[in-house]
Structures are given as C-alpha cells and as structure tokens.
Amino acid sequence: MDWKKSFQLASVYVGSVVGAGFATGKEIVEFFSQYGLYGLFGIILAGLGFIYFGVKVMEMAIRLNAKSYEELTMYLFSPIFAPIINIFMFLMLIGASSVMLSGAGSVFEEHLNIPREMGILFTIGLSLIVLMVGTKGLVIVNLLVVPLLILFNLFLAFLSMQLPEFYSNVQALGSTNWKWFLSAFSYVAFNITLTQAILVPAANEIGDVKVVKAGGIIGGLLLTLILITSHMTLVQLPNLTSYHIPMAMIMHELAKSLYLFFILIIYGEIFTSIIGNIYGLERFLKKWLPFKTIFVGILIFSVTYLISKIDYSTLLSTLYPLFGYISLVFLVLLIIRK
C-alpha cells in the first residue's frame, strides 16, 4: 500500500477542515469548549465521526467513480433533489466565506490595531489577485501554515498544562443538557458536507480504497488530536465565549514573544480557506454566468462583504450551527446508502 499517498490525503483532509473558525478557536468554543468536560466527550464523538464519514465519502467516490461532489450528491439525494442540495451547498459556501472575511477583519481590529473594514478590504483585494494568478502559491502557503498551526496548538497545550488550575479547568462541567451531543454531530455534518468538494475528487484521483481508508483514518485522528489540545487550552481562558479570537488571547498570555507570528499564521489559515471557498463558488457560478473570473469574483465578494459586516462572533455562532443541523440529513443518507 502507498502510505505516502495516505498521508498526503490525510493532510488535505485536515487542511480542508481547519478553517477560520477552527484556527481562531471560536468554532471550537461554540461547538465544544463552552460545554466544559461534556465538550471533551463531544470531541471524541466528533473524532469518530470524522474517521467514519470521511472514509465513507471517499470510498463511495471511488466505487461510484464520482469526479466531483455534484455526482455524489446526485447519487445520495436522487436527480430530483440534487439540484436543491447543490444550491444549499452554494449558500453554505457563501455563509462560510462571509464568516471568514469577518474573522479576517477581527484579526486586524482586535490584534493588529488596524480598522476592521480595512482588514476586510485588504483580504478581498489579495484574494482577487490570487484568483486571477492561480493557486500554486496558495498550495505552498497551506502546506506551511497547517503544520505550523498544529505545532502551535500542541505548544500551547503543553504550556497550559503548567498552569496551576489546568486539571480543574479541564474537568469543570458546563451545561448539563444534551446539546453537546447534538453539537458534536452537527459539527461533523457541517464539515463533511463542505469538505466533500475536496475529498471526492482527491479520492477518485487516487482510486485505491485501502489508501483512502488509511488517509481518512489518519486525517480523522489528527483532527481529534488538534481538537483535544485546542479544547484543553481554551478552557483555561476565563469568559472564553466573549472573545472573537480566543486562541490568540491564550498565546498573548502564555507566550507573548510568539504572539504576532501566531497572528500571521491564523490570518494565513483564514486567507487560504477564503480562497478555497471562492474558487468553489466561482466554478459553480460560471456554469450560468458567461463572465470572466475577475467579474465573478467581484460579484461573490460584493455579497460576502455585505454579510461580513455583521459581527464575527454573531455570524459564526448563528450560521455554523444552522448549517450543521441542516447537514445532518447528509450524514443520515451516508449511513443508509450502500
């Protein structure tokens, strides 16, 4: 078996899940850390979901010889409902891109003392340039940013373990209702629904069930590790739900000398995620709009810019759980369909 391809696929899987909300820590707080110890149980549940559903999507892509997520959607939802689901995915990408733009603005405002609006406009301008030039440089940036982000997460978790109240904070119970359980599944559903746009063609290109299965398992385990270490770090922060970028606040407290470098890594992850989404949206729209890439890009950013003017925390805490709950249908069909 080709283990090199399995690890490459695993890195693609991790990179496609680790987006703006994940990098800033806000997404992890929203879905897991606010529930305290129950959030840790939710992460373990989500980790198992990432392994099972990630493997299932890629195995199904190979067996169906599906070259794009639209072909997989056609099989899961039938030709009648598939167009509706594709429109829903388009709206999810619009929503996710808006959240990321808003997050980029928050990075500039909260940690670089640059006006939020300027940060958003700078990100849009840079994104349009990359959209025109191509993705080669972006791939290199992603290969650098994701491993660095993982290393910083592990480093912060290690520093957090030195704190006197580390274990009591990790063991503290949050809300005792069962919302954490549904939250874990909705988190997996939201991410698997979005990442299938990358996983389906990647698996089809490899064409080996054993290789993609190993890649899905390795990727799922890595995501679980990152989630656990991030969670254990975040729960050390008092009033953790009040911060836009809680991971940066932790870095500022525990390793101030590396703070600005960490901010650049977070911004790099946000930027690569925005570009990935915009490419997906641009390809979707060009089926119906006979315009040049630059004009389609401007149209997409005009919409996402207006939505991104809403507060980052409000946007993420509203849209992501909503998309997650709706995406649960996708997980159910993945389980049912042979």
Q: Which features would summarize this protein structure in a list?
A:
338 residues; Amino acid/polyamine transporter I; single chain; mainly alpha; 14 helices
Structural summary, described in words:
The chain is an all-alpha fold and 338 residues long. It has a single domain (3-336), classed as Amino acid/polyamine transporter I (Up-down Bundle). 82% of the residues lie in helices and 0% in strands. It has 14 helices and no strands. It has helices at 3-17, 20-24, 26-31, 37-64, 69-111, 116-133, 136-160, 166-171, 179-206, 209-234, 246-254, 259-285, 293-308, 312-336. The mean pLDDT is 82.
Distance between the termini: 25 Å
Structural class: mainly alpha
Summarize the biggest pleated sheet: none
Rg to the nearest angstrom? 19 Å
Query: What's the number of extended β-strand segments?
Result: 0
Gist?
The protein is 82% helix and 0% strand. With 338 residues, the protein is mainly α.
Topology:
Layout: H1 3-17, H2 20-24, H3 26-31, H4 37-64, H5 69-111, H6 116-133, H7 136-160, H8 166-171, H9 179-206, H10 209-234, H11 246-254, H12 259-285, H13 293-308, H14 312-336
